[in-house]
Protein backbone atom coordinates (compact mmCIF):
# COMPACT_ATOMS: atom_id res chain seq x y z
CA UNK A 1 0.00 0.00 0.00
CA UNK A 2 1.22 3.50 -0.84
CA UNK A 3 1.53 5.67 2.23
CA UNK A 4 -0.19 9.03 2.53
CA UNK A 5 3.23 10.73 2.75
CA UNK A 6 4.37 9.09 -0.52
CA UNK A 7 1.15 10.18 -2.28
CA UNK A 8 1.67 13.74 -1.01
CA UNK A 9 5.24 13.86 -2.29
CA UNK A 10 4.22 12.43 -5.73
CA UNK A 11 1.49 15.05 -6.03
CA UNK A 12 3.92 17.80 -5.18
CA UNK A 13 6.44 16.40 -7.73
CA UNK A 14 3.69 16.37 -10.37
CA UNK A 15 2.75 19.95 -9.50
CA UNK A 16 6.38 21.08 -9.81
CA UNK A 17 6.69 19.28 -13.15
CA UNK A 18 3.61 21.10 -14.42
CA UNK A 19 5.02 24.46 -13.31
CA UNK A 20 8.32 23.72 -15.09
CA UNK A 21 6.46 22.64 -18.26
CA UNK A 22 4.44 25.84 -18.22
CA UNK A 23 7.61 27.94 -17.86
CA UNK A 24 9.20 26.09 -20.77
CA UNK A 25 6.13 26.81 -22.90
CA UNK A 26 6.05 30.50 -22.01
CA UNK A 27 9.76 31.33 -22.06
CA UNK A 28 11.43 28.81 -24.32
CA UNK A 29 8.85 28.15 -26.98
CA UNK A 30 7.58 31.73 -27.18
CA UNK A 31 8.20 32.98 -30.73
CA UNK A 32 10.91 35.60 -30.95
CA UNK A 33 9.61 36.85 -34.30
CA UNK A 34 6.36 38.34 -32.98
CA UNK A 35 5.63 42.07 -33.34
CA UNK A 36 2.88 44.61 -32.60
CA UNK A 37 3.12 47.24 -35.34
CA UNK A 38 5.36 48.53 -38.15
CA UNK A 39 7.47 51.63 -38.60
CA UNK A 40 7.33 52.94 -42.16
CA UNK A 41 10.66 54.76 -42.34
CA UNK A 42 11.16 57.34 -45.10
CA UNK A 43 14.46 59.13 -45.67
CA UNK A 44 15.15 62.56 -47.10
CA UNK A 45 17.83 61.88 -49.76
CA UNK A 46 19.53 65.29 -49.48
CA UNK A 47 20.18 64.61 -45.79
CA UNK A 48 21.57 61.15 -46.52
CA UNK A 49 23.91 62.71 -49.11
CA UNK A 50 25.25 65.86 -47.46
CA UNK A 51 26.87 64.21 -44.42
CA UNK A 52 30.61 63.47 -44.12
CA UNK A 53 29.94 59.97 -45.50
CA UNK A 54 28.38 61.39 -48.71
CA UNK A 55 26.37 59.16 -51.05
CA UNK A 56 26.32 57.65 -54.53
CA UNK A 57 23.39 58.17 -56.89
CA UNK A 58 21.73 54.98 -58.16
CA UNK A 59 22.84 53.58 -61.49
CA UNK A 60 19.41 54.63 -62.78
CA UNK A 61 20.27 58.30 -62.17
CA UNK A 62 19.83 61.06 -59.60
CA UNK A 63 16.54 60.53 -57.76
CA UNK A 64 13.84 63.19 -57.80
CA UNK A 65 13.67 65.52 -54.81
CA UNK A 66 11.23 63.48 -52.75
CA UNK A 67 11.19 61.30 -49.66
CA UNK A 68 12.18 57.71 -50.37
CA UNK A 69 11.57 54.51 -48.47
CA UNK A 70 14.20 53.16 -46.08
CA UNK A 71 12.10 50.26 -44.85
CA UNK A 72 8.94 48.84 -43.33
CA UNK A 73 10.05 47.52 -39.95
CA UNK A 74 8.07 45.20 -37.65
CA UNK A 75 8.39 46.45 -34.05
CA UNK A 76 7.16 45.58 -30.56
CA UNK A 77 5.38 47.86 -28.09
CA UNK A 78 8.33 47.52 -25.69
CA UNK A 79 10.65 49.08 -28.31
CA UNK A 80 12.41 45.85 -29.30
CA UNK A 81 12.05 44.27 -32.74
CA UNK A 82 12.50 40.95 -34.48
CA UNK A 83 14.98 40.65 -37.33
CA UNK A 84 16.13 38.08 -39.91
CA UNK A 85 13.22 35.74 -39.23
CA UNK A 86 13.91 33.28 -42.05
CA UNK A 87 17.51 32.29 -42.77
CA UNK A 88 16.40 30.49 -45.92
CA UNK A 89 14.59 33.44 -47.49
CA UNK A 90 16.37 35.44 -50.13
CA UNK A 91 15.25 38.34 -52.30
CA UNK A 92 13.85 37.10 -55.62
CA UNK A 93 13.64 39.94 -58.15
CA UNK A 94 11.21 37.98 -60.34
CA UNK A 95 8.56 38.17 -57.59
CA UNK A 96 8.49 41.97 -57.79
CA UNK A 97 9.18 42.41 -61.50
CA UNK A 98 6.04 44.51 -61.99
CA UNK A 99 7.03 46.77 -59.06
CA UNK A 100 10.64 47.41 -60.08
CA UNK A 101 9.93 50.77 -61.75
CA UNK A 102 8.17 52.03 -58.63
CA UNK A 103 10.92 50.63 -56.40
CA UNK A 104 13.63 52.36 -58.45
CA UNK A 105 11.75 55.65 -58.09
CA UNK A 106 10.48 55.41 -54.50
CA UNK A 107 12.99 53.03 -52.83
CA UNK A 108 16.37 53.91 -54.39
CA UNK A 109 19.65 53.11 -52.70
CA UNK A 110 21.97 56.06 -52.08
CA UNK A 111 24.78 54.08 -50.49
CA UNK A 112 28.17 53.82 -52.20
CA UNK A 113 29.11 52.34 -54.57
CA UNK A 114 26.24 53.19 -56.95
CA UNK A 115 23.79 50.35 -57.32
CA UNK A 116 20.53 49.38 -58.93
CA UNK A 117 18.93 48.97 -55.49
CA UNK A 118 18.84 45.17 -55.39
CA UNK A 119 21.37 44.99 -52.54
CA UNK A 120 19.39 47.47 -50.40
CA UNK A 121 16.06 45.72 -51.14
CA UNK A 122 17.66 42.34 -50.33
CA UNK A 123 18.91 43.71 -46.99
CA UNK A 124 15.54 45.21 -46.03
CA UNK A 125 13.62 42.07 -47.09
CA UNK A 126 15.93 39.67 -45.26
CA UNK A 127 16.30 41.78 -42.08
CA UNK A 128 12.77 43.19 -41.69
CA UNK A 129 10.52 41.77 -44.41
CA UNK A 130 10.98 38.17 -43.34
CA UNK A 131 9.46 39.11 -39.94
CA UNK A 132 6.46 40.95 -41.45
CA UNK A 133 4.14 37.95 -42.05
CA UNK A 134 3.85 39.30 -45.62
CA UNK A 135 5.30 37.56 -48.64
CA UNK A 136 8.00 39.37 -50.59
CA UNK A 137 5.61 40.89 -53.12
CA UNK A 138 3.14 42.02 -50.45
CA UNK A 139 5.98 43.50 -48.40
CA UNK A 140 7.28 45.75 -51.18
CA UNK A 141 3.85 46.63 -52.56
CA UNK A 142 2.57 47.53 -49.07
CA UNK A 143 5.52 49.81 -48.34
CA UNK A 144 5.15 51.55 -51.73
CA UNK A 145 1.41 52.05 -51.23
CA UNK A 146 1.86 53.39 -47.69
CA UNK A 147 4.52 55.83 -48.91
CA UNK A 148 2.15 57.07 -51.61
CA UNK A 149 -0.67 57.35 -49.07
CA UNK A 150 1.45 59.45 -46.69
CA UNK A 151 2.40 61.86 -49.50
CA UNK A 152 4.88 63.52 -47.14
CA UNK A 153 6.45 66.08 -49.46
CA UNK A 154 3.04 67.41 -50.54
CA UNK A 155 1.81 67.43 -46.93
CA UNK A 156 4.81 69.57 -45.94
CA UNK A 157 4.38 71.85 -48.97
CA UNK A 158 0.72 72.35 -48.06
CA UNK A 159 1.91 73.63 -44.68
CA UNK A 160 4.39 76.03 -46.32
CA UNK A 161 7.39 73.80 -45.54
CA UNK A 162 9.71 73.57 -48.54
CA UNK A 163 13.29 72.34 -48.99
CA UNK A 164 16.18 74.77 -48.58
CA UNK A 165 15.11 76.38 -45.29
CA UNK A 166 15.15 75.89 -41.51
CA UNK A 167 12.09 74.99 -39.44
CA UNK A 168 11.28 73.99 -35.88
CA UNK A 169 10.80 70.24 -35.41
CA UNK A 170 7.42 71.00 -33.85
CA UNK A 171 6.23 72.75 -37.02
CA UNK A 172 7.28 69.78 -39.17
CA UNK A 173 5.65 67.27 -36.81
CA UNK A 174 2.45 69.33 -36.59
CA UNK A 175 2.24 69.58 -40.39
CA UNK A 176 2.54 65.79 -40.75
CA UNK A 177 0.04 65.20 -37.96
CA UNK A 178 -2.37 67.54 -39.75
CA UNK A 179 -1.81 66.11 -43.26
CA UNK A 180 -1.39 62.39 -42.57
CA UNK A 181 -3.51 62.29 -39.41
CA UNK A 182 -0.90 60.73 -37.12
CA UNK A 183 2.08 62.00 -35.13
CA UNK A 184 5.42 61.06 -36.72
CA UNK A 185 8.84 60.56 -35.18
CA UNK A 186 11.42 62.82 -36.82
CA UNK A 187 15.05 61.64 -36.87
CA UNK A 188 17.86 64.09 -37.59
CA UNK A 189 21.46 63.81 -38.68
CA UNK A 190 24.11 66.48 -39.15
CA UNK A 191 25.49 67.91 -42.38
CA UNK A 192 29.11 68.80 -43.00
CA UNK A 193 28.61 72.25 -41.42
CA UNK A 194 27.23 70.52 -38.28
CA UNK A 195 23.67 71.69 -38.95
CA UNK A 196 21.00 69.40 -37.53
CA UNK A 197 18.72 68.40 -40.40
CA UNK A 198 15.63 66.32 -41.11
CA UNK A 199 16.89 62.85 -42.02
CA UNK A 200 14.07 60.32 -41.57
CA UNK A 201 10.34 60.36 -40.82
CA UNK A 202 8.80 57.38 -38.99
CA UNK A 203 5.07 56.69 -39.25
CA UNK A 204 3.43 53.76 -37.45
CA UNK A 205 1.29 51.19 -39.23
CA UNK A 206 -0.98 48.53 -37.74
CA UNK A 207 0.28 44.94 -37.58
CA UNK A 208 -1.67 43.89 -40.67
CA UNK A 209 0.03 46.73 -42.59
CA UNK A 210 -3.27 48.22 -43.72
CA UNK A 211 -3.25 51.74 -42.27
CA UNK A 212 -1.38 54.29 -40.19
CA UNK A 213 -1.91 54.33 -36.42
CA UNK A 214 -0.65 56.46 -33.53
CA UNK A 215 2.76 55.10 -32.53
CA UNK A 216 2.64 52.82 -29.44
CA UNK A 217 6.28 53.76 -28.81
CA UNK A 218 8.73 56.15 -30.45
CA UNK A 219 12.39 55.44 -31.21
CA UNK A 220 14.95 57.29 -29.07
CA UNK A 221 16.73 60.43 -30.19
CA UNK A 222 16.13 64.15 -30.40
CA UNK A 223 16.71 66.80 -33.03
CA UNK A 224 17.86 70.34 -32.35
CA UNK A 225 14.85 72.63 -31.92
CA UNK A 226 15.54 74.31 -35.27
CA UNK A 227 16.49 71.98 -38.10
CA UNK A 228 17.35 72.28 -41.76
CA UNK A 229 15.19 70.75 -44.48
CA UNK A 230 17.98 70.75 -47.06
CA UNK A 231 17.48 71.04 -50.76
CA UNK A 232 18.50 67.96 -52.73
CA UNK A 233 19.79 70.07 -55.59
CA UNK A 234 22.41 71.70 -53.35
CA UNK A 235 23.85 68.45 -51.93
CA UNK A 236 26.64 66.57 -53.66
CA UNK A 237 27.12 62.88 -54.22
CA UNK A 238 30.44 61.08 -54.64
CA UNK A 239 29.56 60.73 -58.33
CA UNK A 240 29.47 64.52 -58.58
CA UNK A 241 32.55 65.18 -56.45
CA UNK A 242 34.45 62.79 -58.72
CA UNK A 243 33.14 64.77 -61.71
CA UNK A 244 34.45 68.02 -60.18
CA UNK A 245 37.90 66.50 -59.60
P1 LIG B 1 20.69 52.86 -36.48
O1 LIG B 1 21.66 52.28 -35.52
O2 LIG B 1 21.31 53.46 -37.70
O3 LIG B 1 19.61 53.72 -35.86
O4 LIG B 1 19.85 51.61 -37.04
C1 LIG B 1 20.46 50.58 -37.74
C2 LIG B 1 19.40 49.63 -38.19
O5 LIG B 1 18.79 48.98 -37.08
C3 LIG B 1 18.21 50.26 -38.93
O6 LIG B 1 18.46 50.47 -40.27
C4 LIG B 1 17.17 49.21 -38.75
O7 LIG B 1 17.40 48.13 -39.60
C5 LIG B 1 17.41 48.80 -37.33
N1 LIG B 1 16.65 49.64 -36.39
C6 LIG B 1 17.09 50.76 -35.72
N2 LIG B 1 16.13 51.24 -34.92
C7 LIG B 1 15.05 50.45 -35.09
C8 LIG B 1 13.75 50.42 -34.50
O8 LIG B 1 13.38 51.25 -33.66
N3 LIG B 1 12.92 49.44 -34.92
C9 LIG B 1 13.30 48.50 -35.85
N4 LIG B 1 12.39 47.57 -36.20
N5 LIG B 1 14.51 48.47 -36.38
C10 LIG B 1 15.38 49.43 -36.02
P1 LIG C 1 19.28 49.15 -41.86
O1 LIG C 1 19.86 47.89 -41.32
O2 LIG C 1 19.90 50.37 -41.27
O3 LIG C 1 17.84 49.07 -42.13
O4 LIG C 1 19.81 49.23 -43.38
C1 LIG C 1 20.78 50.08 -43.79
C2 LIG C 1 21.70 49.27 -44.66
O5 LIG C 1 21.31 49.46 -46.02
C3 LIG C 1 23.11 49.76 -44.49
O6 LIG C 1 23.96 48.66 -44.68
C4 LIG C 1 23.23 50.75 -45.63
O7 LIG C 1 24.55 50.86 -46.08
C5 LIG C 1 22.36 50.10 -46.70
N1 LIG C 1 21.78 51.09 -47.61
C6 LIG C 1 21.86 51.03 -48.95
N2 LIG C 1 21.24 52.09 -49.51
C7 LIG C 1 20.74 52.83 -48.49
C8 LIG C 1 20.01 54.05 -48.45
O8 LIG C 1 19.66 54.68 -49.45
N3 LIG C 1 19.67 54.51 -47.20
C9 LIG C 1 20.02 53.84 -46.06
N4 LIG C 1 19.65 54.36 -44.89
N5 LIG C 1 20.73 52.70 -46.07
C10 LIG C 1 21.09 52.20 -47.27
From TrEMBL:
GO BP of this protein: RNA catabolic process
Q: Using the record, list the residue span of the signal peptide; answer none if the entry has no such feature.
A: 1-30
Q: Keywords in UniProt for this one?
A: Disulfide bond, Endonuclease, Hydrolase, Lyase, Nuclease, Signal
An example of a GO molecular function for this protein is: ribonuclease T2 activity
Q: Name one GO cellular component term.
A: extracellular region
Where along the chain is the active site annotated? 70, 124, 128
**Recorded family membership:** Belongs to the RNase T2 family.
Instruction: From the Swiss-Prot or TrEMBL record, give the protein name.
Output: OLC1v1032779C1
Q: What is the lineage of its organism?
A: Eukaryota, Viridiplantae, Streptophyta, Embryophyta, Tracheophyta
Amino acid sequence: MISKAKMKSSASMLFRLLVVLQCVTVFCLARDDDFDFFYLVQQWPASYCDTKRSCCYPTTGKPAEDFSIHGLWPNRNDGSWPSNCDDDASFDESEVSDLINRMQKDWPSLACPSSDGVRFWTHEWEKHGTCSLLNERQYFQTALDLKAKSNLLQVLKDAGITPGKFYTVERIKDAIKEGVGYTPFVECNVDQSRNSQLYQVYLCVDSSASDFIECPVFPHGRCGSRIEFPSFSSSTSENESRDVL
